[in-house]
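Sanity check

After download, print the first record. It should look like this:
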Amino acid sequence: MNQIDIKILNILQSDCTVSVKDIAKEVGLSYTPTYERIKHLEESGVIQTRVAILDPAKIGINLFAYCNIVLKEQSKDALLEFENSVSMLSEVLEVVSLSGVYDYMLKIAAKDIYTYNDFIVNHLANIPNIGQYHSHIVMSVVKDTTAYCLD
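Expected structure tokens:
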């Protein structure tokens, strides 16, 4: 990647609906080479997808929680079974494996505390091999971005 590619990526990270024509103008190229660069960035997997980022409150999501998980068993099969199970839950936005005290951290979105409690009791707690879970309710979000620093 060169500086023009980085400029294109920064523009798209800020607003993926910007037209190729406007991107071309911004980076100092004509339409066709700009389009070809974007296509190459998509085909090579640098650009994985383009999405709309929603305002959670406007769609009824008023609670986020990070839930740390400790598993009872650490075998490869047990880890994969857990990962597959939690990945199927629509409330779970992110699943990351961790080093240290906890095995996984889940980012969970819910309508409210009652919906979150229902999710924990009726879905998460029923997944086999969970030894412990610890919830951390988000009080406020100081920074929330999906853009990577490419400078």
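If your output differs, re-run the checksum step. Summary of this record's structure: Residues 70 and 102 are 5 Å apart (CA to CA).
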